[in-house]
Fold this sequence. Notes:
2 copies of one chain form a homodimer.
Chain A: E1 6-7, E2 17-19, H1 43-47, H2 52-59, E3 64-66, H3 69-75, E4 83-85, H4 87-93, E5 98-103, H5 114-126, E6 131-136, H6 140-152, E7 155-161, H7 162-167, H8 169-177, E8 181-185, H9 191-199, H10 207-219, E9 225-227, H11 234-239, H12 242-254, E10 260-264, H13 269-285, E11 290-296, H14 301-304, E12 306-311, E13 320-325, H15 347-354, E14 359-363, H16 365-379, H17 385-404, E15 409-414, H18 422-429, H19 440-446
Parallel strand pairs in A: 5-15, 6-7, 6-9, 7-8, 10-11, 10-15, 11-14
Antiparallel strand pairs in A: 1-4, 2-3, 4-5, 12-13
Amino acid sequence: MTEQTKFLLDESKLPQAWYNINADMPVPPQPVLHPGTLEPVTPDFLAVLFPMSLILQEISAERYIEIPEPVREVYKLWRPTPFLRARRLEMALDTPAHIYYKYEGASPVGSHKPNTAVPQAFYNKEAGTKALTTETGAGQWGSALAMACAFFGIDLEVYMVKESYHQKPYRRIMIESYGATIYPSPSNNTMYGRALLADNADAPGSLGIAISEAVEAAATSGGAKKYSLGSVLNHVLLHQTVIGQEALLQFEMADEYPDVIIGCTGGGSNFAGFTFPFIHKNLTEGKQTQVIAVEPAASPSLTKGIYTFDYGDTAQMAPVVKMHTLGHTFIPPGIHAGGLRYHGMSPQVSALVDAGHIEARAVKQLDTFAAALTFLRSEGIIPAPESTHAIKVAIDEALAAKESGQKRVIAFNLSGHGHFDMGAYESYLHGRLEDYEYPAEAVAEALQHLPDVS
Amino acid sequence: MTEQTKFLLDESKLPQAWYNINADMPVPPQPVLHPGTLEPVTPDFLAVLFPMSLILQEISAERYIEIPEPVREVYKLWRPTPFLRARRLEMALDTPAHIYYKYEGASPVGSHKPNTAVPQAFYNKEAGTKALTTETGAGQWGSALAMACAFFGIDLEVYMVKESYHQKPYRRIMIESYGATIYPSPSNNTMYGRALLADNADAPGSLGIAISEAVEAAATSGGAKKYSLGSVLNHVLLHQTVIGQEALLQFEMADEYPDVIIGCTGGGSNFAGFTFPFIHKNLTEGKQTQVIAVEPAASPSLTKGIYTFDYGDTAQMAPVVKMHTLGHTFIPPGIHAGGLRYHGMSPQVSALVDAGHIEARAVKQLDTFAAALTFLRSEGIIPAPESTHAIKVAIDEALAAKESGQKRVIAFNLSGHGHFDMGAYESYLHGRLEDYEYPAEAVAEALQHLPDVS
């Protein structure tokens, strides 16, 4: 054990540009549709929600988009992030595989989310935006955007899924500490929230509902507020590509190249951020790295959903995109990986799965926590429940390599730490954690309500 | 803002040796006394609790003690830690001062504690120890030692102050996740614990009591268990000097040298780890860096205590040392900085304060949280309540520099993140956080019970 463990990049190696996979997509992009007319949206419609600079990134075909210097200056607070060889895990598994991981939990809020929160706050500030609205599930996105808004002096209004608001108070307090205002969703702030509460005062909420409220709050503000989304959209995904670009440089330092790369997928942003720069090399340089997207068996859009047009939110206010979906009215079971509880998937990730460039696997909650314990007792870091999904498949791959006697190079993205999720670990350790079966009936029902796009 | 923000060291620059300030102490060391006889202890007495390698480090006069390779290999999971210039904080304060901080929250458990937990587990493993006992207050030390014991395959029994055990469940679960067993203290496991519970079944416990229980559990195990302490003792302090040694190299990268360095002090370990390598240069190379130890006004051993011999624990089972003490029966008020709630202080830190090489300041809880908000809204990282004490004085110094128009170079140790302490932030944000006055009467009473050392 005298070889190198940790590969650090100096801040001068921070990427100068984000990578936009639209430039290399092997299939033509599908239009984004207006939720009312189901016709292709005009920039005007999007301009109610987003500043023009982000809309242009959303539809850009440029391969590289320069990162503004003020954004790079903030990134330097924690980026480049560490890249480690998991030597102690390799020994614990007794595998000939080399296992690497990129650690995004090194950010101040403990996840990859600030990679896009910071540029979104910056571009809004540049466009004169005084206030933003957003939604958050477990709170990773809300806390990241709250930090970014504190840095750039923008007011922020967060709609947090009511169940998480009460069950995960620490993330809520974190959001408040950065100075944002937070409401449990459904709330009385919006027409949609009031309608839901009139129907059921104790409605627990969902991510789809919280998105609807945040969109409504911005869209009806008469221009006073814009809206910000933490995943799914192309401009979000491309901001995250700093992860994979750094990992490519760090693999060079390690003098290796991955045979297989793995990320967990909810809306797709940490997965895309880590893997797209490698997929770029697969598509344009003849590399043949296997790319695996790991989703929860309880919310398996890629492995059980339909690849079709659907709404991004429950109330049908967000744009309609072509993606793998379980139906916009589907509310995923209450797994602890709150960041993976979404009915849809990023259109770019969906298209690449459909075209065979990404493989998708679904894993069960109990298996992910078993993998997490193996990892944390070897490597120390307690992973977020979302990240445990990637770890589970990385360990599977390492054990398969042991079985076949192959030295495979495996890498995964450790998207965040689990210091806010110890309640989930307690349930697991004390045998109280449930495994959810695939909710086939609820999905079948939800898939009855897809928009009629001809 | 184009100058460097973050100074990273490659793992090849990880220190090869720990620095032992006993070699440079300007005053002769005071003997460690047996708690029963109040005569100087023999190694035999200490050998019941500690492996000989750690006892030899405790009394060593060697300036440098080589770090074993297996310990360095584990350190590389997160060390060297980042060193940052707080440019955004400087701008927020509009100060000509340059503010730097060393970030120990980058460890897997979020604090500096693994720096000594790992070598203590390693030396115990080498000596054949199968099981360790320890105490923990808020849980930073317990989680660090639990991780280290998981790495080296040692069983661990943690006595956690009962009030924290119930109020801070996340740290408790973290300790369990690494595989350790944890008991609320006072417990029924020890004679001392049973006696306290017989007196008051709802006794909330204290750090001094938990130390007594952990010491008793080891001392009465017939050699089956050793004991491990997370602060105060010299071998603990010297393990922490990796912090300051790295910071010295990182100051070279920044091409600056500090005018003033600041750390928070409870038992003294993070403070000593950060400052002793700089004090070495003050003592031996004519440097004149001002060194400030910051303690809570509610538990002010250095600024209000007596420099004399006292017991390290409540039940008078731990060795008696010469230190600044508020009396071993004093139980500090319930401030959120649980790691600073201790009646005594490291003998080395105490002697250096007494000899005028370290300046001590006491600060109030509300002021530390106000400073924390200023910091986190500029720099992103949410500091642990302990670390907020150092930040408060760093900001005071930066504002004094602004007042006097001096460009001072200020550095502090950010000993950990506050992701487990958001409850304290909630109380502060909602105006429910108390400020504790200096508990003069309780201290006066406790100081009646000092041992009679002639």
